[in-house]
C-alpha cells in the first residue's frame, strides 16, 4: 500500500496585492518550523534580517537561470535538477488544498468585497477543503463509506 502524506491548511489569510511576498514571510511563520519550502519568488528570504535568528532549513526553489547555463550532460546539472524536482514534489502536496478550493468549491475568480469579507470566505473555504480531503478517513471511522 502506498503511503501518502496529508496536508491540511493551518493558516489562511489575505493581504493587499501590491505587497511583495518576501516581506510577509515573518507573518506566515509561527516559530516552530524546522523546514520552510517556497517557490522561486521567495529567493533571498534567508538573508533578510528578520530571519537571522531562525534555525530553519530554507528550501527555496532555484530560478531556472541559475542552472540553465550549465551543460545538460554535466553531473552538476543533473544533481541540481534532482534537488529541484524533490523540492517541487513537496510544493505539489502543498498546492492540493488550493486545487480543492478552486475545483470543488468554484473559487476561481476573486471578486473584491473588502479584505475582511474575502478573508472570511477564504478561511471558510480552506476549512471546508480540509474536511473534503479527509472525507474518506472520516467516513470510514463513522462506519459508512459513501463517496
What is this structure's SSE topology?
Layout: H1 25-28, E1 35-38, E2 57-60, H2 64-68, H3 75-103, H4 115-133, H5 135-141
Parallel strand pairs: 1-2
Descriptive account of the structure:
- It contains 5 helices and 2 strands.
- The protein is mostly helical.
- It has one domain.
- Strands 1-2 form a two-stranded parallel sheet.
- The longest helix is centred in the middle third of the chain and has 29 residues.
- The N terminus is likely disordered.
Short description:
By secondary structure, the protein is mainly alpha-helical. 44% of the residues lie in helices and 5% in strands.
Task: Kindly list the characteristics that best describe this protein.
globular, two-stranded parallel ribbon, 5% strand, mainly alpha
Largest sheet properties: 2 strands, parallel
Spatially, the strands of the biggest sheet line up as 1-2
Strand content: 5-15%
The ordered string of helix (H) and strand (E) elements is: HEEHHHH
Task: Please give the number of β-strands.
Answer: 2
Residue stretches low in confidence (pLDDT < 50, at least 5 long) are 1-5
Radius of gyration: 19 Å
So what's the overall shape? globular
**Mean pLDDT over all positions:** 81
Helix content: 40-55%
What is the end-to-end distance?
A: 21 Å
> What is the number of helical segments per DSSP (H or I, 4+ residues)?
5
**From the helix content, strand content and strand pairing, which structural class follows?**
mainly alpha
Q: How many independent structural domains?
A: 1
